[in-house]
Amino acid sequence: MNILFVASECAPFVKTGGLADVIGAVPKALAPLGAHVRVLLPAYPALAMEVSRGTEVLSLPDLMGGHARVVAVSAKGIDLLLLEAPHLFDRPGNIYLDGNGQDWHDNYLRFAALSRAGALIGDGALDDWKPDLVNAHDWQAALVPAYMALAGSTVPTVMTIHNIAFQGVFGADVLAAIGLPWDMQSVERGEYYGRFSFLKTGLTMASRITTVSPTYARELMEPEYGMGLDGVMRARAADLSGIVNGIDLDVWNPEDDANAPEGYSARTLRKKAINKEALEGRFGLTRGEGPLFCVISRMTTQKGLDLLLEAMPTLLERDARLAIVGSGDKWMEHAFSDAATHHAGRVGTIIGYDEGLSHLMQAGADAILVPSRFEPCGLTQLYGLRYGTIPVVARTGGLADTVIDANLAALDAGCATGVQFAPVTAVALGQAIDRTCDLFSDQKVWTAMQRRAMKHPVGWDASARAYLSLFSALTES
Are the C-beta atoms of 44 and 97 separated by less than 8 Å? Predict the structure, then answer.
């Protein structure tokens, strides 16, 4: 089976979040099952080297206002199709935001171009390769099903939601510029409270819809989580599947992680203490009787980090420490920086993101906090399981699907792998921190949890089979 992925980012080439990790991992997971995946990706400046090594396979003389071409190249084990359109993608800095932190003014053109190129390739524009199915990811690729349907294509399309909070909503006047007819601005298609939504268009026109965990799939049909699209999701409930994300077990491997001073396994957990010491040194933390918590996250209210600020006294009262890395809302960055200043040696904050540092944090921390108000799947808790860094998570979305709470029944049954809390409030988070500290105080119980966590399946094998089953059903029908 030939499958085309269309996405705006892909690890390790360009990454702003978990979407990139998924796009970089799934093609490798599907290959042993007989599927050949090619990933269509904008040729951002970071991909210049790959473009120079590639071969032009498609010329697009006028794509949303300029000349473009598609270059094929294999890199890092992934078959890439790079959309080189300098007038749209040859820009410094963040791939979505300008130097002032605002969305690029022409994002509607940029990602309509990506979708248009994806639709052309999906319908056979390449001489030597045609996909049996096209999988569009998030709003940046969501117009692929529309362009293909309008062209009369019979190739099935799948729309995958990684986070419904990001919808690509613009004024209805963009329709002419991106080559869509006015009837797309209807309640049945892309109209969204008087504006035009890329994501809604994809959700209404794709053959099937997937999202990144079973619980999130159910949550999307509720007003609290559907972000104004819960009605669309309920209408398409029969076409919606939730398939939990996995992680790349080669990239995230505690036994052989170049970013950690000492490799370890479930059998040699005592070696994790060496990484803990290195992590304490990196963040200027002193030793304590309680656990060392870490946070690797965007600093936003969606991620619940404002709740962590409220619950900080509980953490400090238990003689625990906190190492946090991330960026996002400026007030939150300042608040965590202030916490590090006022509680030197107990709280350490690094603003920004560092992939290598995130590996060290997983390898060295005792527990990882993920207090998200909503979380489609989440990856950091999966990395935590893999590294024996106990996840403390809100009971929502993929967090609920991947972490087994250490309640009395689960502890007695020997299956607990982390700590869940609900409702998602500062009080409940403080109680979860308290419970985690109690568990940590009994090293026999804690070590058993760590070993179970490290044995928990977090790779792509089962999910890849689920994707292939869905894709096969669509292509056969």
Answer: no
